[in-house]
Amino acid sequence: MAMSKSIIYLDYAAATPLDSDVLTAMTPYFSQNFYNPSAGYTSAQQVRKDLDLARAQVAHWLGARSSEIIFMAGGSEANNLAIHGIMRQYPEANIVVSGIEHESVLATAEHYDYREVAVRADGTVNLDDLFNKIDDNTVMVSIMYANNEVGTIEPIGDISRKVAEVRTARTAKGNRLPIYLHTDACQAANYLDLHVARLGVDLMTLNGGKIYGPKQSGALYIKGDIKLLPLIDGGGQERRLRSGTENVAGAIGFSRALDIAQSLRQTEVKRLRELQLQFFESIEDQLPLAVVNGSKKQRLPNNIHLSFPGIDNERLLIQLDEAGVQAAAGSACSASDEEPSHVLKAIGLSDAQAQSSIRLTMGRATESANILKTLKLLTEFTSTAK
What's the CATH architecture for 8-17+265-384? Predict the structure, then answer.
């Protein structure tokens, strides 16, 4: 994970460097073990066994069965398969999503009858509004586990219990329409418990590019006998849900990355929480006008999201970049969009407030000295801008 010593990278929510152990695990499958796992000869069948082992390793961290794990090309594809895969079977039904979902959830939901749930100022889903939006014709609820911009962690357990109540009530009154809970856990996998039974979710999206694994890798967990319609038809790989020769190196890299991330989870949460607290306590003295966006309590430990009233975030980010600090205004997927972030608008920020906001996301290479230097630069740049 080598990075220039002169650069302070604070955009880990957008992309993480490939872990050296992950690269080591992947390397044989680019050349030496290049075989198609569907072939019948011994070398190919060994690759098939390696792929199955990687699948089992992912399943272990989710408390799932190997048959419930489908390898995907990243989080966006997994979100698309989860939503299209259910909704195309029930074209007259509706889907309920929050207003702060990733674009790959919102844009997919827009193909159907969808209801958007309000969120509170701290970024948490308004549970009363969510439960009011679910009706007898709701077949799917999709709420992210942790937000990619402001870092707020959503109460997935509370939501899953309500969905279970709805399911029971439907059965009692003879309504045979199923209802499924999907969560986008792409930002959560480094820092939160992924055990699907404890969370109570039916489908879960994971992304290798956010956990020090290869980009365009990931997985979709699909509970038990839930049936999805595929996005890609063909040879029937991945339980006929993602046809095409498997990206073995990507799947093995993702599996190894998830193993490392979950093994380091508690240590990294403690370390980054201390750095986050250091930053929040320091801004009270050094950046008194800065506003912290999102929940301070229910928040990913690596996320710092700030608004600087009257400061243009584009100019501020350029200044930081020139000084060696790499940060972001929000989701990298919408970085080229001049419109204010839909997440920030959903939590009640005005266009002016959104356009004065920046996101700093820490990672494994972040140290206390990086935080101190970034605070010093922010103090300098925001004071001279007035």
Answer: Alpha-Beta Complex (3.90)
- Can 333 be counted among the known catalytic residues? yes
Beta bridge partners of 142: 97, 182
Q: Which CATH architecture has domain 20-260?
A: 3-Layer(aba) Sandwich (3.40)
pLDDT in tens, 166-180: 999 999 999 999 999
Strands 138-142 and 94-98, sheet pairing: parallel
Q: Which of 1, 226, 333, 365 is catalytic?
A: 333
Q: In the chain, which segments carry CATH 3.40.640.10?
A: 20-260
Euclidean distance between CA atoms 354 and 370, whole angstroms: 25
Q: Could you read off the pLDDT of 97-143 as tens digits, one per residue?
A: 999 999 999 999 999 999 999 999 999 999 999 999 999 999 999 99
Residue 328 pairs in a beta bridge with 359
Residue 61 exposed, middle or buried by CB count within 10 Å (0-12, 13-18, 19+): buried
CA 309 – CA 313 distance, rounded (Å): 10
Rounded to two decimals, what is the model's pTM?
Answer: 0.94
Q: Single out the residue of 273, 89, 75, 94 nearest to residue 166, CA to CA.
A: 94
